[in-house]
Write a structure and sequence with these properties.
alpha/beta, GMP Synthetase, Chain A, domain 3, 553 residues, 11-stranded mixed beta sheet
Length: 553
């Protein structure tokens, strides 16, 4: 082979000499030919679509040279004295880091608009309006709340059948008016599922989703592209608060189903990771060997930010400390999917030498609140949710008083969740953050308790693993509640509250699947016992433990 030429990149890339042969990595946009004018009119970037690189190969002399040209005034002009970068002497790591910068500044924003996505448009809205006064943002929240309630009582069968006089609701008094709407529990979400959503043909993408349930109660729900774009825009904003700009590198210590099941990543997943400029490390594979590899990956990749399950990054930090390892310090670490206890935060900051941000949300409703750069208290995004915190008497809690979190989604018009009890405990704050953002504050979140399991081989298994596979992947809608208990390193009890006890026999293959997935991480010799029970009670404090380990402390 004498020559390798790459194309389809929207920018001209460097070349390299390898074993005496040349490799051209990208020729630029010019070769789209008659589509050049289309690109010039759209958002792909006019300046990139006009330039091209030509590679000339002389078969007789076996020589290669290149020329640089541009398209201007309906003519192609050769540009003289253009030096194409030769990366032959540049290390792979150095070139990779330079290319990441190139993707961040040029290519990425285009891909965020794939298939008509409006996440960048919504992100810019959030970025601008976060600096409004709190009073102005609350007025906008009232408009959004009134609008979603009007839609729900008109179009959603469940809310229509409540026989509530919505005509008496007013935008100015909507925070009081909504109190006449009954709470929506996870039990009702399961039982009334078919009556809680409507299919709008105008929406481009409507899709089912599921939650394993941080409280051990799995749920199913519907979402749409309008909701997902607002959700994505919120993540971009929260990342920016933590110091990660759009497209900058990120390592995500998160769930990877395909890795657990021994499957390779799909092309769509690979492309999505490229768009987001992230590398995924599986938080469900926290073996001693893998944690060492994860540290090596972090040191090599040098991410701007690490996004992680709270328990995962805490266990990784403990591993670094116990083994006296060195780990790269990112700009920030963002934690989610669990309570960021003070001792967790202290250890993570001590090991990684960077600030740790707390992001709070749930799979059913998305990201609710997040720390800003001041790291004082969580900011509630009033443009996506309306949050109530209620006491045992179903009355609103005063700031500083702990109560149950009740969420109304403002952007999911396919399946609006009105006054949805997500079974977390939290409290409002009456402080004003010095950052100046016009968002109310949440002082403390608690209620999600999870234990970590330990195998005979000293491998750590996070409670989220059981939540994800039992509650999401394997649940066919018949499991109302579950609890996983580790009595010994090789003995697991799974308590199950089913819709009907005969479902266990009818769906034996599914429950065998649960056993298989537990053995996959705990070891084939592990004994797994299923116990059908009528109820699983919370602890004396009112908190529900969906995983209990009597082995790992």
């Amino acid at each position: 082979m004498d020559l390798i030429v790459g194309y389809h990149s929207h920018i001209i890339q460097a070349y390299e000499e390898y074993k005496g042969k040349k490799i051209y990595y990208g020729l630029g946009n010019y070769y789209f030919g008659n589509r050049r004018n289309t690109f010039n009119k759209n958002n792909i970037g006019q300046r990139f679509s006009k330039y091209g690189l030509g590679v000339l190969h002389n078969n007789t002399r076996n020589s290669v040279k290149h020329i640089y040209f541009k398209y201007e005034n309906d003519r192609t002009k050769i540009v003289k004295d253009y030096k194409l970068e030769n990366i032959s002497a540049i290390s792979l790591t150095e070139y990779s880091n330079n290319y990441k910068k190139l993707r961040t500044t040029h290519s990425k924003p285009i891909l965020y608009k794939w298939r008509g996505s409006k996440q960048l448009e919504y992100y810019n809205y959030l970025k601008k309006n976060q600096w409004n006064s709190l009073e102005k943002n609350i007025r906008r929240q009232k408009k959004l709340l009134y609008k979603i309630l009007k839609h729900s009582f008109k179009n959603i069968p469940y809310y229509r059948d409540l026989n509530i006089d919505f005509d008496s609701f007013k935008e100015d008094t909507i925070f009081e008016d909504i109190k006449s709407v009954p709470f929506l529990t996870k039990k009702e979400l399961r039982e009334e599922y078919d009556n809680l959503y409507i299919i709008n043909p105008k929406l481009k993408r409507i899709y089912p989703n599921a939650s394993g349930g941080s409280t051990g109660e799995p749920t199913r729900f519907m979402q749409d592209n309008y909701y997902s774009d607002w959700s994505a825009s919120t993540k971009i904003l929260y990342n920016e608060w933590a110091g990660r700009k759009l497209g900058e590198s990120q390592i995500k210590l998160w769930v990877s189903e395909r890795d657990i099941l021994g499957q390779s990543e799909s092309i769509a997943h690979v492309l999505a990771n490229w768009v987001w400029n992230l590398k995924l490390l599986n938080s469900f594979r926290m073996t001693q060997e893998n944690m060492k590899k994860y540290i090596e990956e972090i040191n090599l990749y040098k991410p701007k930010m690490i996004l992680a399950y709270v328990q995962s990054i805490y266990e990784l930090g403990k591993f670094v400390k116990e083994n006296n390892l060195k780990v790269y310090s990112p700009n920030s670490i963002m934690t989610s999917a669990g309570v960021l206890y003070p001792k967790y935060k202290e250890l993570i900051e001590d090991i990684f030498h960077c600030p740790v941000f707390n992001r709070y949300g749930s799979r059913e409703v998305g990201d609710i609140a997040c720390d800003c750069e001041k790291l004082e208290e969580l900011h509630l995004n009033v443009f996506n949710h309306y949050i109530e915190i209620i006491n045992k008497n179903r009355k609103n809690c005063e700031p500083g008083k702990m109560g149950e979190v009740v969420v109304t989604t403002l952007r999911n018009y396919t399946m609006p969740l009105i006054r949805f009890k997500i079974e977390d405990m939290a409290m409002f704050s009456d402080k004003i953050c010095p950052c100046g953002r016009g968002f109310p504050l949440m002082k403390k979140v608690s209620g999600r308790i999870m234990d970590v399991f330990k195998t005979k081989e000293d491998k750590i298994v996070l409670g989220e693993y059981f939540i994800h596979f039992i509650g999401v992947v394997l649940n066919k809608g018949i499991i109302n509640k579950f609890q996983v208990i580790q009595e010994k390193e090789d003995y697991i009890i799974v308590k199950l509250v089913l819709d009907k006890k005969e479902s266990f026999i009818k769906n034996k293959k599914d429950f065998d699947g649960i056993t298989d997935k537990i053995k996959l991480v705990m070891g084939n010799a592990t004994k797994v016992e299923h116990k059908l029970v009528d109820e699983i009670l919370p602890t004396k404090s009112g908190k529900y433990r969906y995983t209990i380990s009597n082995v790992y402390h």
